[in-house]
Amino acid sequence: MGELFFSFYYGGLMLILGLCMHRKLKSDFERYSKMQKKN
Amino acid sequence: MSIYIIGVFATLLLYLIVGNYAGTKVKNLDDYYVSGRSAPTLLILGTLVASYLSTNTMLGETGFSYDGYPALLMWNIAINAIGYVLGAYFFGRYIRRSQALTVPEYFRHRFNSRKVQMAAGITVVVGITAYLLAVTQGATLLMSELLGVSEGWAMLIVWAVYTSFTFYGGSRGVIITDTIMFFIFMIVLFVATPFVVNLGGGWAEVLTRLANFEGVKAGIASWHSAVGPGRTWATPGAGITWAIIIGTAWMGVVMVSPWQTSRYLMAKNEHVVLRSAFLAGVSILLLYIPIAIIGSTTNLINPGIENGEKVFLWLAFNKFPAWLGILVLAGILAAALSSASTFLSLVGFSVTRDIIGERASKDEKTMLRFSRIVMLCCGLVTLVICYFQPPALFWLTYFAGTVFAASWGPTCLLSIYSKRITAEGAFWGIIVGFVANSATKFGSVFLGWSLPVWADPFVIGLVCGLLAILIASSLTKVTEEEKAYREKLFKEIPLEEYQDQKEVKRTMLFPKITIGVSLAVILLLVFAYALPYARI
């Protein structure tokens, strides 16, 4: 059980970060695109 | 002359030729300090990972796994690796916008204070010189063992190689050679692992034998490693708490330390900053799986290696075919030289820009010549200290490793995200964090202070540094210049870099790659490790 949790932990932190950053970058780039159009 | 010596000298010659060729392309200060701010993703990735990995990784951390703690190493690395992405997004992009030549120079612009730049510059010179001494001594011991020559001669060879291309090629030479070295030790680790597993009888056999390992290293392949009474950590909880604290400290190191964040100053654009950080995090996550496997599996091949740090050397000379042995030695040396060249360049840059600063000439050509002379002098000083100071790898690495996370961490992040931090706050945060971290480390190593696991020197330094920032900032006021500069960092988004939708789409691929690789790592560990282990 511990080994299973450890396996999910080792790749899981980076996986969660990847998912969050994907969302964050998407919204950032959309914002930049709007700013460009405004300019 | 043995085939090992010829092989290692061939790689040294390659670094010399490439590094010095890169030096011929250096035409101005930007080229020398920040590689013309034109480096692509591959070079930033190469230098990020290569300057992070040192002999401590190839020798020390493989030894740590051999000694019974592969899972603890990985508990630590999982946190450490995410620091790349967090650092690039929350700090790296902004210092690149500052267009500074060094990270302390960014502090000067941000706080409109030469005093803060000097304080940061001095911590770079002290902290990084200590780390430079450790990697030079590590490479010297390896070279001396390999060539069978005195340590003095071995030191001279190692020093001459990294100093020649660093002093002449500056950052341009360093990042190209770093990238070559990055590929060498990636290949080494991924080629050596199947060899070691085969020597242990194949993966199923290795896992079964490690799961049933008896003696002090019983539990070596479990989720908590070989902890227990009489071991370094008595319980799984103590071991994992330690690993999480060290992982957090090193996450801070890759987020803010000068030898990592200064790489972003060289990036061609913000896309490169983000892309290289995603790839660096994923690379670190992947690289430590072979390190843990090689270290622990070697117990099945030879359980009697007295010094765990010599596992790789023992395998190279005794078990690997000659070509792989050469590759391993070249990889270990590459890990040392890549860190040494980055560290020497940072010390040289900080002495010239951050400490001597405006007293130096304004003329670009004179300044370039002056920077090279200072770099050579810094190299010579390092050589002299290294020669007269006995090898002290452990305490030098221990001192320098996480000092920047404690000393610079709060100031770096608050310089972007706090409206209240002042120049005095930044100054005292850097100084108090540095002193508290170093003093606690000194006390625990030399005075026998016994600290609880949670009171790691990193934690003490971080808390003291934060308190210093809070107190000093509350006693002083943010100036208009500081306020304006901080706002500029947020407002002056390089929109032209985000105009090309193809580039934007390509950058969006990198978090997807990160998600894919992380999923693959989880599946690999579940199906090749956790489930078979449960059935044993």
Give a verbal description of the structure.
Chain A contains one helix and no strands. Chain A has about 40 residues and is mainly alpha-helical. The longest helix of chain A is centred in the middle third of the chain and has 37 residues. The termini of chain A are far apart. Chain B is an all-alpha fold and about 525 residues long. Helices cover about 80% and strands about 0% of the residues of chain B. In chain B, helix 8 packs across helix 15 and helix 19 packs antiparallel against helix 20. The chains are: A mainly alpha (about 40), B mainly alpha (about 525). At the A-B interface, helix 1 of A face helix 5, helix 12 and helix 22 of B.
Taking the sheet with the most strands of chain B, its summary is: none
Structural class of chain A: mainly alpha
Instruction: Report the radius of gyration of chain A as a whole number of Å.
Output: 17 Å
Number of helices of chain A: 1
| Unreliable segments of 5+ consecutive residues of chain A | none
Strand content of chain A: under 5%
Question: How many separate helices of chain B?
Answer: 22
Oligomerization state of this entry? Answer: heterodimer
Describe the global form of chain B.
globular
Total count of strands of chain A: 0
Average pLDDT level of chain B: 91
| Terminal CA distance of chain A | 56 Å
H and E order of chain A: H
Beta content of chain B comes to under 5%
Percent range of helical residues of chain B: over 70%
In round numbers, the mean pLDDT of chain A is: 94
Radius of gyration of chain B, in angstroms, nearest whole number? 23 Å
The count of DSSP E runs of length 2 or more, i.e. the number of strands of chain B, is: 0
Low-confidence stretches of chain B: none
Shape of chain A: rod-shaped
